[in-house]
Design goal:
One of its GO terms (molecular function) is protein arginine kinase activity. The protein has 13 helices and 10 strands. With 349 residues, it is of the alpha+beta class.
């Protein structure tokens, strides 16, 4: 709870200068039980017991060391931290009566129970590793299926609460840092092209959220009528093209506007290293500039993983959890600035 950087985030992974993470999420439901939104408390508790039985199984624990965490035993602040670390969804955090999360010790595997569906199996890898995340998610899925009867239709595939997940129940997504495409004003054209090939672009925390700090989440929209391999191949191919466009934009910036880019990243570094008050939106943008400066070798002595860590540490929930107390908005802005100074620079005397 007090560590912003999950263990899985410490490895760079392929294309890690642009791709922050790859995620596979599988939606599954138990046959003969209503979807969570229609289930009674008793039915939801029964699903919880079924999931916990699987999680306690010796074969399950051989994959990794897991902990069973009922959401009802967490306070609002703790649930918010889990959302900021991408371990649970805002939906589960807001309706946690009979919900739980089964979490691996390195936080690469997070299984939500009684969210929109009975099970949401999520696996996270650093960099562009969609296939690796799929292999792990598929392994966890098999362990659940061995002890549960899934709601499945021969024609429609896996049955889910939301029709957009029916079929494979697979949502594959990649988190990308695209500052150069934003600075060169190419981002709207690129994202429009992405939408036309059946992919969705969302903000840092998924559907309906803002692309803070030039972070964009690209995922499949189609789950019915395509195999898991086809979905992942399509996403991987499009993401590789986005990476090429971002790299080309960075090269263009360095050849045509190096002094302006150097000024931008150094200004942001200076503000981050010395500011005493900074809100979350400005911090996200300045940290994006910092990460671009690190990747372009314009800033030395700051590790790229510091960016990943600070993107979580500077969120409101984590700031308060780390401080051990509720903070007012101004106090959060002051604590955020202090935390950034401690990580990347010294406080001016």
């Amino acid at each position: 709870m007090d560590q912003a950087l999950s263990e899985w985030m410490k490895g760079g992974g392929p294309e890690s200068d642009i791709v922050i993470s790859s995620r596979i999420r599988l939606a599954r439901n138990v046959q003969s039980y209503p979807f969570p939104m229609l289930a009674t408390n008793h039915q939801s508790e029964e699903v919880m017991n079924l999931a916990k039985k699987v999680a306690d199984d010796e074969e399950f624990q051989e994959v990794a060391s897991f902990e069973w965490l009922p959401l009802s035993e967490m306070n609002d602040l703790q649930r918010r931290v889990f959302v900021e670390k991408h371990l649970i969804s805002p939906n589960l955090a807001n309706d946690s009566r009979n919900g739980a999360v089964i979490l691996s010790d390195n936080e690469a595997i997070s299984i939500m129970v009684n969210e929109e569906d009975h099970l949401r199996i999520q696996c996270l890898y650093p960099g562009l590793q969609i296939k690796e995340a799929w292999a792990l998610a598929n392994q966890m899925d098999d362990l659940f299926e061995a002890q549960m009867n899934y709601a499945f239709d021969e024609q429609r595939g896996f049955l889910t609460s939301c029709p957009t997940n029916v079929g494979t129940g697979l949502r594959a997504s990649v988190m990308l840092h695209l500052p150069a495409l934003v600075l060169t004003q190419q981002i709207n054209r690129i994202l429009s092209a992405v939408n036309q090939v059946g992919l969705a672009v969302r903000g840092i925390y998924g559907e309906g959220t803002e692309a803070l700090g030039n972070l964009f989440q690209v995922s499949n929209q189609i789950t019915l009528g395509q195999s898991e391999e086809e979905i992942m191949d399509n996403l991987h191919s499009v993401v590789k093209q986005i990476i090429e466009h971002e790299r080309a934009a960075r090269t263009k910036l360095m050849s045509e506007s190096k002094n302006r880019i150097m000024d931008r990243v150094q200004r942001s570094y200076g503000i981050l290293a010395h500011a005493h008050i900074i809100d979350s939106k400005e911090a996200s943008q300045r940290l994006s500039d910092l990460r671009l400066g690190i990747d372009l070798a314009l800033i030395q002595g700051v590790a790229a993983c510091s960016y990943n860590e600070l993107m979580v540490m500077t969120q409101p929930g984590f700031l308060q959890q780390y401080s051990g107390t509720q903070l007012s908005p101004e106090e959060r802005d002051m604590r955020r600035a202090q935390m950034i100074r401690e990580r990347i620079g010294s406080t001016p005397g």
